[in-house]
Amino acid sequence: MPPSILKSSLENASFSIIFQIFCRCVTFGLNAFVIRHVGQAILGVINVRLLLLESMILFLSREPFMKACLTNTVEHNWAQVVNLLWLTVPICVVMSFFFGYIWLFLLSTTEALPPYYTFAVWAVGLSCVIELSSLVVQLAASAFLFVRLKIILDTIMIVIRTMTFVPLILYYPENALLAFGIAQLVAAVFYTTSHYVYFHRHIEKLNKCTQKRRMSLKDSSDEYVIREFPFHAIKDFLPGQLENHDSYLDRKLTILTWSFFRQGILKQILTEGERLIMTIMPILTFTEQGIYEIVNNMGSLAARFIFRPIEDSGYFYFTQIVKRDKAISDQNPMKVQESVNVLTHLCSVVTCIGLVVLVFGQSYSSMLLWLYGGSKLILPLPVCLLRVHCFAVLLLGINGVTECYTNATADSATINNSNLIMVCHSITFLGASYLLTIWLGPVGFICGNCVNMFLRIIHSARFISKRHQDTIYRPLRGLVPKPMFSACLLVAGFITSLSHAYFFPTQKMLHLLIGVTMFVIVLIAWIYENYELIELAMSKWYERRNKQKKSD
User: Fold this and answer.
1) Can you state the angle between helices 412-440 and 380-409, rounded to 10 degrees?
2) 9, 95, 340, 466: which has the highest count of C-beta atoms within 10 A?
3) What is the per-residue pLDDT for 347?
4) Number of helices and strands (H, E) in the chain?
5) Which residue stretches of 468-503 are H helix?
């Protein structure tokens, strides 16, 4: 892999993480704003129905084409790629009318839709069409390593959408869907226009460079972009503009796109399973949908900011240390012991974090919801949802670590079998979510997710146990918390429960102070029992910092 591509890939990963955190923070704050100024019902319509509509249109119209055309871009005939990508616009138009008709006339609901719902539906469809009209330029930015461009434009688009939506809500809170539709259109127009404007200026700059200057930079990363960039005018991004002596479309790319499309339908159904059930089957009111989205976003913060970095780092580590195609007993004993210690510690850490969230979440869900959405959220339903979600966080953390080890160390046959099992688990999740929601209401969705996580943990635990059955190592023992930590956690749970019963909501600060005190006690107990782990982590950190200083 050329160094410029490797460097850009690493930059893209880093910027993507930062961008995901930024998006999550903006969404988190925007939801709180909508709750306080409009209400949960409008939030349910926007975050469930309308964003599901946007996801369905964009994913099915764009994702297969982007995946196919980003494959081996060095060998592309760009005339055929441009022609293929412009097919997304008429496909998006068809998808917009198809799903728009379903969203307007076929979806059943037991309650009245908010004002401007029809406008919001068509605004979503039109914004998708506008955004896909620059898909060729977006692909060129990805293929030719314009890493910062994508992140910058995506960030500005979110800012523009937010800055358009918020003032309209402040002045006309009763027309929230009108504000949402206008914000979608403004952001889409900016996104498309800015891509074309940037590359128009970039091409002009390239055309001013002399041929001698371009060839003199033969070994630089900039020259990779300059010499290989096949577009010499902005009209070259339109279909049929580049010289093309072959067929109108690349047959291999077309077949690959169709394969990704068929695969993507199932993936989209499984990814958006909860929203699809809420939208197609009106088992929840708009208010309940809004409350569920609020709690789901709050509960996913731990997964996004704590568990995900642990999983990503663990996956990379295990792929480098443990060989997939060899039994553990046949591998380097030192590396095996190190990998087992790391897996044991990771299991212990995520279990302890999950247990802390579970215990303290039972007494402080009300406090967190009050801080986030005010008195509107201190109701039995959102409090119950967040308390149950705390148990899902525990399972999510354990599943992340055990599954990352499984995916990082399993051979190809096991991975193929795991993919089939995952599909079965996902289908089970959809069925369990539907049935449990009928019985339990919105809590049923979280319980269905817990069932899915539990089944996946069992599958990964069986693989890990079988992998180490011929050795003396039992890394899954890390899932059992140590005695002093467990005892302090039980005491903390009891005391904070009493505090919640007697001091919330009349004496919120006293209730919070008690919680902070008990958390510090639990943390001290954990540090005492895991002092060796902390020493090891600190030594590794100092060692890494010293290496960086020497290299600088």
Assistant:
1) 170
2) 95
3) 92
4) 22, 0
5) 483-503
28: number of Cβ within 10 Å: 15
Alpha carbon distance 532, 528 (integer Å): 9
In terms of Cα–Cα distance, which of 363, 305, 382, 344 is closest to 513? 363
- H/E run at residue 365: helix 333-373
pTM across the whole model: 0.75
Lowest mean pLDDT among 141-150, 272-281, 403-412: 141-150
Report the alpha-carbon distance of residue 19 to residue 148 in Å, rounded.
Answer: 11
Quick: pLDDT tens for 444-472: 888 988 998 899 899 999 999 988 888 88
Those residues whose C-beta lies under 8 Å from the C-beta of residue 115, and which sit 6 or more positions away, are 174, 175, 177, 178
**Structure tokens given for 206:** 């390239």
Q: How far apart, in whole angstroms, are the C-alpha atoms of residue 92 and residue 100?
A: 11
Q: What per-residue confidence (pLDDT) applies to 24?
A: 66
From residue 481, how far is each of 107, 390, 414, 447, 492 by CA, in Å?
A: 48, 17, 30, 24, 15
Residue 519, class by beta-carbon neighbours within 10 Å (0-12 exposed, 13-18 middle, 19+ buried)? Answer: middle
- Report CA 284 to chain centroid distance, whole Å: 24
Q: What is the DSSP string of 180-242?
A: HHHHHHHHHHHHHHHHHHHHHHHHHHHHHS-HHHHHHTTTSHHHHHHHH----SGGGGSTT-S
Tell me the average pLDDT across 164-172: 87
Distance CA 178, CA 48 (A): 16
Q: How far from 495 is each of 25, 36, 406, 515, CA to CA, in Å?
A: 32, 32, 39, 9
pLDDT average, residue stretch 352-381: 88
- Calculate the average pLDDT of the chain: 82
Question: What is the pLDDT averaged over residues 501-513?
Answer: 92
Question: Are the beta carbons of 411 and 400 closer than 8 angstroms?
Answer: no
Q: Can the peptide bond before residue 505 be classed as cis, meaning omega within 30 degrees of 0?
A: yes
Q: Give residue for tokens 């030719």.
A: 144
Q: Which residues are within 8 A (CB) of 137 and not within 5 positions of it... i.e. 6 or more apart?
A: 195, 196, 199, 237
Backbone angles phi, psi at 272, to 5 degrees: -100, 25
DSSP, residue by residue, 23-88:
HHHHHHHHHHHHHHHT-HHHHHIIIIIIHHHHHHHHHHHHHHHHHHHTTTGGG--HHHHHHHHHTH
Nearest to 381 by CA among 475, 295, 267, 503: 295
The one-letter amino acid at 80 = Q
Q: How far apart are CA 500 and CA 518, in angstroms?
A: 13
Is 219 a residue whose pLDDT tops 70? no
- pLDDT score, position 511: 95
pLDDT at residue 114 is higher than 60: yes
Contact 261, 87 (CB under 8 A): no
Specify the 3-state DSSP secondary structure of 342.
Answer: helix
Q: Which amino acid, one-letter code, is at 244?
A: N
Rama region for 507: left / alpha / beta (φ>0; ψ in -120 to 50; rest): beta
